[in-house]
Amino acid sequence: MSCSKYMLVRQVLLFFQEFIIGFILILRTYALYGRSRCLLTWMVIIGFALAGGTTAGTFGHFESNITILPGVGCYETYTTETAVRLGLAWVAVFVFDLLIFVLTVYRICKTRGLLRLSLVTKRNAIDIIFHDGAMYFGAMALINIPNILTYYSGSVTVRGCLGTFTICMSVTLISRLMLNLHKSIDTDTFSTPTRDDDYSLDVLTTRVNLQSAISSHHW
């Protein structure tokens, strides 16, 4: 595979990884707001708008130089104009993460009050979602902001050098975030066996009752 094809495949994989991460974040926020379809509609619209800008910046026609470095492999450098366009894609990712974080904090403040916010106490699903969401946003902000700065203020050799690291950390953190939610929920999760008539097998279904957890914290 040539370097140009390799870079194209890499960009496509990065885009789909970020798409899956955004989908998971939307699902968590949708559940947190009691399956509000109005909110879901707006999140999807905003998500697709940001994804459209990301796609245009990532896959549009731009100039770059691809070289093969000994011991490294294919390495791509960007012109200033190209770096600005690619940087906008990561800005869109940061804006989406910020939107999800604001929605999460707003919902927690509305249901529990500002004075009862805590990053330490994790008593139920609401505490876990707020704690993990805040940690995820904080970690990604610390990682993504330097990544964005490489596109706008870095030299030619460092532009975009943190892109792969940023997406890998995002995938790792969102996976850990979901696993922690699944592991930590106790009283708010219950499983019921159901019968699959086509195959005569018992199927275990799990449902998380977030609404009851939210209601229990109303003043």
Rounded to the nearest angstrom, the distance between the terminal CA atoms is 61 Å
What is the chains' assembly state? single chain
* Count of helix runs: 6
Strand order, biggest sheet?
1-2
Q: Give the amount of beta strand, in percent.
A: 5-15%
**Major pleated sheet:** 2 strands, antiparallel
Helical amount: 55-70%
The helix/strand class is: alpha+beta
Description:
The chain is of the alpha+beta class and 219 residues long. Helices cover 65% and strands 13% of the residues. The protein has six helices and four strands, in the order ααββαααββα. The protein has helices at residues 3-32, 37-59, 80-112, 125-153, 163-184, 210-215, and strands at residues 64-69, 73-78, 189-196, 201-208.
